[in-house]
Design brief:
The chain has about 700 residues and is α+β, with helices and mostly antiparallel strands. Among the domains are: about 200 residues; about 160 residues, Rossmann fold, CATH 3.40.50; about 90 residues, no CATH class. The protein is built from 22 helices and 23 strands. A hairpin with a 3-residue loop joins strand 14 and strand 15.
Length: about 700
């Protein structure tokens, strides 16, 4: 959402600055306007900093309540969160980053002419406490710059003259440093003593309706020269030029928990949202696109070395991807390369949606970009000029159509059939084993990526929290050298189904609801291939050639039989009619989202599901599950269904003992498949039962 009212807020900001002292700069001098603007901006930013800390102080409790009382509840909560919550630290960090950048930019100007330095010293001395602290960083930087210059000059002069300006600056720095230790609260309170309550600038912290952060431009380092060859290079094409900006920052921080070393390069091209459009103002709130060489750092800020500042780039452009890949391969040569494309995904429809350009990468675009990088790969690895692993850290890219397109340019593909949570891949979990074992082979790495991802969203995983105990996710890895035979079988199946379209569609629709039960994903035209052919194979009235092709596809996968609650419901059978009273995880009341048909509330505490029947064998039965994530009705948090608790109430008034079913666990990972199978790893958590690793485009109309 574009923020409004910025110009109006600027008017009120300007009214506070010290107008006389900043105009001490000689107006006729070159750079004088830039210097005045910079000094003025430092005062504006510092006043915001002082005001935020003033409002957050416990001594301002009543004043803050009075300021917020006339706002609507949602806006009031947002203000309070920004002023007294965790976001306050982010705002303060943003102010500090901008003060640091403006101060750094002003130093070269101040060093050009003595009169600029004299005027600035006067400006600082004339500013009252605590506004004078706006210039603390500037004075410190200026002292460091002049000290370096004086030291250099003294090496060439027998008796260097005394530098009066440096002496004054050091004295001023000492004064400011002492002043920074004082409590500014009463001075800020006095500063606002004559301000009407309605004119108090509370809107400075209203990020719901204004752009509250400052952007920074960063430095422009010289492009890096080619580095020495290593075992692995990981190239991350991180397109956070959309509503995933905050997740992008977090993922770079995860990469920094591992960092590059003598055997591993981690390099990312990172694009952020335009100022005011993104959802993250941390890490200097820079905009545009940068390239980072990721170094190890355990802080929550991005501390890696920026090796290129590219300005705004279109991350939905195939040329941009091609240029990044070629540059990355030649600048950071290695025995093996992994590429990560990070963004929203739409399966065969595309990936890497850039909100500023409105463009995205199609799958043919990715193939083209990789082919453009082939000369660089051939130069670095002439015996094997291919990318070893491609990971789509994006939604719904685990499709046969996608894998088939990439088979000639990538060895191993890692992708998800279903949507991915915003946190995406757990980079600390996935990259740490590679750093510890740099001799790891690409196939092993691809399998490890699947395992680490699935476990990270399982109970106790790195991507879980106290309020979100897990997520229903999928992840798979494919050997693309074996994808063509599977694609050929699917083509044969399609031809056979088209030849018998009327019969198969009628049977599939009406055969015990098999078609309705096929595993579909967030885009319901995407279905799990293995689940589809298994359900087709169960329809006895289909022609033998169709069922035979289904059997060939099943054999091609070589998927082991799974016996756990991820893919199988709990079936309760009895010889007498009645109902099943049940709960989950210690008899908790199950949310209605996980009730089967013919269920209701029992004694306000439990669910009751009727037994249906009798069947041909005289059994009455019901199915509970398979279950996805459930929301605890009391704690309001997502959790896995780790057990089902139930008893049976019979129509004759009798009841069974209590039972507990704890079959299986909350995730499953399979890495053993048939030799000819393209699938080398498949994993999913609870709620993604009947997911077997690869989907196809199969809309309802077929």
């Amino acid at each position: 959402m574009k923020k409004f009212g910025l110009a109006l807020s600027c008017i009120f900001i300007v009214t506070f600055v010290v107008p006389q002292c900043i105009f001490a700069v000689p107006a006729s001098s070159d750079n004088s306007s830039e210097l005045k603007d910079g000094l003025s901006q430092l005062l504006k930013i510092h006043k915001k900093r002082l005001t935020l800390n003033y409002l957050a102080d416990d001594r301002s409790h009543d004043f803050l309540n009075d300021q917020l009382k006339n706002f609507a509840v949602p806006l009031r909560k947002n203000f309070r969160s920004n002023i007294t919550g965790q976001y306050r630290k982010i705002l303060l960090g943003n102010y500090d980053a901008k003060i640091g950048e403006v101060s750094k930019d002003l130093v070269p100007i101040l060093l050009t002419k003595p009169e600029f330095e004299t005027a600035t010293i006067k400006t600082v001395k004339d500013a009252p406490f605590p506004l004078n602290l706006a210039f603390l960083v500037l004075v410190k930087n200026l002292v460091e710059g002049k000290t370096f210059t004086a030291t250099h000059d003294s090496e060439n002069v027998a008796t260097p003259p005394k530098n009066e300006g440096l002496v004054q600056l050091k004295e001023l720095l000492s004064e400011l440093t002492f002043a920074s230790s004082k409590d500014p609260y009463n001075a800020v309170k006095k500063m606002y003593s004559k301000t009407e309550p309605r004119d108090f600038p509370i809107w400075w912290f209203d990020d719901a309706q204004y752009e509250v952060g400052y952007t920074t431009h960063g430095e422009n380092p010289a492009p890096p020269t080619p580095q020495k060859r290593k075992k692995w290079t990981v190239l991350v094409f991180l397109n956070a030029d959309n509503n995933l900006e905050n997740a992008g920052v977090k993922d770079v921080n995860e990469m920094e928990m591992v960092g590059s070393d003598e055997n591993l390069n981690i390099v990312t091209q990172f694009d952020r949202m335009e100022s005011g459009q993104g959802n993250d103002i941390s890490n200097e709130n820079w905009t545009g696109t940068r390239r980072y060489y990721v170094v190890r750092d355990r802080s929550k800020t991005v501390a890696s070395k920026m090796v290129m500042n590219l300005g705004e780039r279109d991350m939905g452009s195939k040329k941009e991807l091609a240029e990044f890949l070629s540059w990355g391969v030649e600048t950071y040569p290695a025995d093996h390369f992994m590429v990560v494309i990070w963004n929203h995904g739409g399966g065969w429809k595309g990936i890497s949606f850039d909100d500023e350009s409105g463009k995205n990468l199609s799958i043919p675009d990715i193939v083209w970009a990789i082919n453009q990088a082939n000369p660089s790969l051939s130069k670095v690895n002439p015996k094997h000029p291919k990318f070893d692993v491609l990971d789509f850290d994006a939604c719904m890219m685990g499709m046969l159509e996608v894998a088939y397109e990439l088979k000639d340019v990538v060895d191993f593909l890692v992708a998800s059939e279903e949507t991915e949570p915003g946190l995406g891949m757990p980079y600390q979990d996935t990259l740490s084993p590679l750093k510890e074992s740099p001799g790891m082979q690409p196939k092993t790495l691809a399998k490890n990526l699947v395992s680490a991802y699935v476990k990270s969203y399982s109970l106790g995983g790195s991507q879980t929290s106290k309020r979100n105990l897990g997520s229903s996710i999928t992840k798979s890895a494919y050997d693309l050298s074996k994808i063509a035979p599977l694609a050929s079988l699917v083509n044969k199946l399609a031809e056979a189904l088209l030849a018998n379209h009327e019969l198969y569609s009628k049977l599939l629709t009406h055969s015990s609801g098999q078609f309705a039960k096929v595993r579909r994903y967030n885009d319901e035209s995407f279905v799990d291939l293995y689940d589809l052919v298994m359900k087709l194979a169960l329809i006895k009235d289909l022609p033998d050639d169709i069922r035979g092709i289904c059997a060939q596809i099943i054999n091609n996968f070589g998927f082991p039989k799974l016996v756990d609650r991820l893919s199988q419901p709990i079936v309760i059978k009895r010889k007498s009619p009645g109902g099943v009273v049940w709960g989950y995880n210690g008899w908790k009341f199950p949310p209605k989202e996980i009730w089967p048909p013919q269920s209701g509330v029992y004694k306000s505490r439990f669910a009751l599901t009727l037994l249906k029947g009798p069947d041909s064998e005289g059994n009455y039965s019901c199915e509970l599950g398979p279950f996805g994530m459930a929301i605890d009705q009391i704690k309001k948090k997502r959790e896995f269904v780790t057990e089902i608790n139930f008893r049976v109430l019979y129509e004759n008034g009798k009841k069974s003992p209590d039972f507990t079913d704890r079959t299986g666990k909350e995730y499953g990972i399979v890495t053993q498949f048939a030799t000819e199978s393209a699938l080398i790893a498949e994993g999913h958590t609870q709620g993604m039962g009947n997911s077997y690793g690869i989907s196809i485009y199969y809309p309802y109309c077929l």
